[in-house]
Design a protein that fits this description.
The chain contains five helices and eight strands; from the N terminus they run E-E-E-E-H-H-H-E-E-E-E-H-H. The protein is α+β, with helices and mostly antiparallel strands. The protein folds into two domains: 61 residues, no CATH class; 101 residues, 2-Layer Sandwich (Herpes Virus-1), CATH 3.30.40.220. The relative contact order is 0.09.
């Protein structure tokens, strides 16, 4: 154990070794500062890294324990964080639909207001409502990649559905023709009320 191997730059599971930690462990063995894939920092004994007994900041254990990888480390106990939930669901949808998935958790930003409808966004724990935040692909022909996703209201996302920009424009033109250009015009009557 006494031999000093420089682990800097090496990757162990989800961890990348950034540098030697300032302090050694209680047995005076070297510790290493690591960056986890979930972007959390952690200090790990070199022996634990090399034996692969430690491969994450702890997010991997949380994943195994709960079946939901809450890799960003911000989730509260027992409740998957909403951003992680969106990320995880998007990843699943991408897989099912054969779409690209190149997102980091930090690419998902929830604004306070829906950028399309201007309504305030709220998180609802059970089924989504009109003002629930919802991850949308701006261009439905592209996958879940950095500049193609944004968070809008569930209502706006439902309205858009899988429409292409071209179809949306046609739709908008139809709205304009049918309901006039006055934005203060009365609401479009609901189909089922
Ligand atoms: Zn982690």
């Amino acid at each position: 154990m006494g031999n000093l191997i420089d682990l800097t730059g090496r990757v162990y599971g989800r961890l990348k070794v950034k540098s030697r930690a300032e302090a050694n462990d209680s047995c005076n063995r070297p510790m290493w500062l690591c960056l986890c894939k979930c972007s959390a920092k952690t200090v790990v004994r070199g022996a634990s890294l090399r034996s692969k007994s430690t491969q994450s900041c702890g997010c991997l254990q949380r994943y195994r324990a709960h079946g939901h990888p809450r890799t960003h480390g911000l989730a509260t106990k027992g409740k998957p964080d909403i951003i992680y939930k969106m990320y995880h669901n998007a990843k699943t949808r991408a897989k099912v639909n054969g779409l690209d998935f190149k997102l980091a958790l930090t690419d998902i930003v929830i604004p306070s207001v829906c950028p399309i409808l201007g309504i305030k966004l709220y998180r609802h724990n059970k089924s989504p409502r009109d003002n629930s935040p919802s991850l949308d692909r701006k261009n439905p022909n592209r996958g879940y990649v950095k500049n193609n996703v944004h968070v809008v209201s569930y209502k706006a996302n439902t309205m858009k559905s899988n429409a292409t920009p071209k179809e949306l424009l046609k739709f908008a033109k139809w709205v304009l023709k049918t309901y006039g250009s006055k934005t203060k015009a009365s609401r479009v009557p609901r189909r089922n009320s």
